[in-house]
Write a structure and sequence with these properties.
Layout lengths: L2 H29 L5 H5 L11 H8 L4 H15 L10 E2 L4 E2 L18 H9 L3 H7 L8 H4 L3 E4 L11 E4 L1 H9 L14 E3 L12 H23 L10 E6 L6 H12 L2 E6 H4 L6 H13 L4 E6 L2 H4 L8 H19 L3 E6 L15 E4 L5 H11 L5 E2 L5 H7 L4 H17 L4 E2 L1 H14 L6
Parallel strand pairs: 6-9, 6-10, 7-8, 8-9, 11-12
Antiparallel strand pairs: 1-2, 3-4, 5-7
Helix pairs in contact: 1-4, 5-6, 12-14, 15-16, 15-17, 17-18
């Protein structure tokens, strides 16, 4: 049986159970023909032998009847919205929808969208003590929020908590309906882009000291949360691991972040802070909140590029814009410190970062232009077996004479190999390398002899 078929079978049984429950609630609360206990006596579908993402999630958390109702209620608008049509009825006495049903109705979408109030009414009816007890289902400590399964959307600070729209996350909606986890990508509502690389660790040419420091990051990924949660020493340390990468463009900062994700089997999401920072007051915090809110329950590496856009040297606070800029920095620092995962900030210029921020990082790694020895290795390793250097090409001389980054060496070889292909040849010529070097130097504003 396919994942979609298994999911559909489990969800269909859960929908049948829900339909019986909603009819029971009407008889108990409005007709008063049945006692409240009948809700708990309603037999839940048994998923013991079911192998589907939906059933597996229920079994993983040993979900109670109340938790299963909230889960299926959040899913119903996406799989069978007609089940909630019954809740469109009006209170005949006042000619308005029943307040206790909760729910949101939009002009274009004619279906009934459940809120927290809808779930509480179906589970507790008019029983106030039970209502108070069920509020735990929407607390930050509940696995619904901790694991990013579902949540209540709040549109206004003045609205009651339970008036929030009951929303299932994109990840779990995709898992239950398509059989795969949804992975967000860059959009106006999500200012982060998932990055990856086809390269391997062997392709990263850096100093032995740098490799040693990178092992510290791997150690955190594999053992950090275990230390924090399972050992007394964990009480002395803050959640997560914060790293600062500094160094000129092309020295491997983004590649290193991508390789860490690949090696540790984690998604890496890159946020360009220079694009996120907004001239409109409060917009920067809102943009960053979306990223952190989605990342909190995910096994992601957050990679913030152009960090000096927020963490540059501070000047005296002279006007409201300076004050709000400081608020933006404070907001990002607070969210970083609360984030229980790996955060990497990246800057091309270490001297532009305010020194007061360095203590916030467990590790600061300086990526430098490779020395002659590393450049020689790069010239050797960057060429693949399909091509060969002409006998006139002296790699040791090139490495000694041209102080360029790893990215620049790749660019030069890219140019030279395209010239090879244009000649239907596989030999990299010295004149093409020299032309490529000249273009790289011109880009950097340098001259070449």
């Amino acid at each position: 049986m396919s994942i979609n078929s298994a999911n559909a079978k489990a969800i269909e049984q859960e929908l049948e159970w829900f339909q019986k429950l909603i009819m029971l609630r009407g008889k108990i609360t409005f007709e008063q023909s049945l006692p409240e206990e009948e809700i708990r006596n309603l037999k839940l579908p048994a998923f013991k032998n079911f192998d589907s993402p939906y059933a597996s999630l229920i079994k993983k958390h040993s979900m109670s009847m109340e938790e299963r109702l909230v889960l299926i209620l959040a899913l119903i608008p996406h799989v069978k919205p007609s089940l909630l049509d019954l809740l469109h009825m009006k209170n005949a006495l006042y000619d308005i929808p029943f307040t206790e049903f909760g729910g949101i109705r939009y002009d274009k979408h004619k279906g009934y969208l459940p809120t927290g109030e809808t779930a509480i009414f179906l589970l507790a009816g008019n029983h106030l003590e039970k209502r108070f007890e069920l509020l735990r289902l929407f607390s930050k400590d509940h696995f619904f929020q901790k694991e990013g399964i579902l949540f209540l959307e709040k549109s206004s600070m003045n609205e009651p908590l339970l008036n929030g729209l009951l929303s299932i996350s994109h990840e779990y909606l995709s898992l239950f309906t398509a059989g795969v986890l949804y992975k967000p990508d860059f959009s106006p509502d999500f200012p982060a882009k998932r990055i990856h690389t086809t390269q391997e660790w062997d392709d990263l040419v850096v100093s032995d000291e740098m490799l040693l420091r990178l092992e510290e990051i791997k150690d955190y990924v594999f053992y950090g949360k275990n230390l924090k949660n399972d050992y007394q020493f964990g009480r002395k340390i803050k959640p997560g691991f914060k790293v600062l990468f500094t160094g000129p463009p092309g020295t491997g900062k983004t590649l290193t972040a991508s390789l860490l994700g690949k090696y540790c089997k984690m998604d890496v999401y890159r946020v360009d802070l220079s694009m996120v920072v907004s001239k409109y007051i409060g917009e920067t915090e809102k943009n960053l909140s979306r990223v952190f809110d989605m990342a909190e329950s995910k096994n992601w590496i957050l990679f913030f590029d152009e960090a000096d856009a927020l963490f540059g040297k501070r000047s005296n606070t002279s006007d409201s814009h300076d004050r709000y800029a400081n608020q933006e920095v404070s907001f990002l620092l607070q969210r970083m410190e609360d984030f229980d995962g790996l955060v990497i900030l990246c800057s091309n210029f270490k001297k532009n970062i305010d020194e007061a921020f360095f203590r916030r990082f467990q590790l600061v790694l300086d990526f430098e232009i490779p020395d002659a020895h590393l450049r020689h290795i790069l010239w050797e390793k960057s060429k693949t077996a399909e091509f060969e250097y002409d006998k006139d090409v002296d790699l040791e001389y090139l490495a000694e004479q041209h102080e360029i980054s790893a990215a620049s060496i790749i660019n030069v070889l890219h140019y030279s190999i395209l010239k090879c292909l244009g000649k239907n040849d596989r030999t990299i010529r010295l004149k093409d390398i020299q032309a490529g070097l000249k273009m790289e130097k011109i880009k950097e504003g340098k001259s070449i002899v």
